[in-house]
Amino acid sequence: MNQFMITSRAQWYYTWSPSSVGYQTLEFVPMLWRESQVSDWERSINNTISYQHVTHALGFNEPEQSAQSKLSTADGASL
After folding, report:
1. DSSP-H helix ranges across 1-79
2. What is the pTM for the complete model shown?
3. Is residue 78 a contact partner of residue 60, using CB atoms and an 8 Å limit?
4. Model confidence at 49, in pLDDT bands (50, 70, 90)?
5. What is the C-alpha to C-alpha distance for residues 76 and 35, in angstroms, rounded to an integer?
6. How far is it, in rounded angstroms, from Cα 73 to Cα 71?
7. Nearest to 35 by CA among 66, 10, 13
């Protein structure tokens, strides 16, 4: 992250989770990666949004892959 900060070319980052690593000068984009993270998402997202000024979120990486989110489109939309 420091290398990206030095170049001033990065504007945002994600961590494959709803938790940031605390870089206040970059926009953090939380990710709800898979269904097992829902409780973590609900627990941390309000705090993350308030101090990181979150304006976007990512959801369910590669839902068709069993090693990734592994969700049907209906389940993803429901969550």
Report:
1. 2-7, 38-52, 73-78
2. 0.73
3. no
4. low
5. 8
6. 6
7. 66
Chain-centroid distance of CA 11 in Å reads 15
Q: Is 26 helix (H, G, I), strand (E, B) or coil?
A: coil
- Residue pointed to by tokens 């206040």: 24
> For the segment 19-46, what is each residue's pLDDT rounded down to a tens digit?
888 777 788 888 888 888 888 888 777 6
Tokens of 18: 């709803």
Q: In the structure encoding, which two tokens stand for residue 21, read together? A: 């690593």
List the domain boundaries for the chain.
2-65
CB count within 10 Å of CB 42 equals 11
Give 56's contacts (C-beta < 8 A, 6+ positions apart): 12, 27, 29
As a whole number of angstroms, the distance between CA 23 and CA 6 comes to 13
Task: Give the pLDDT score at 28.
Answer: 85
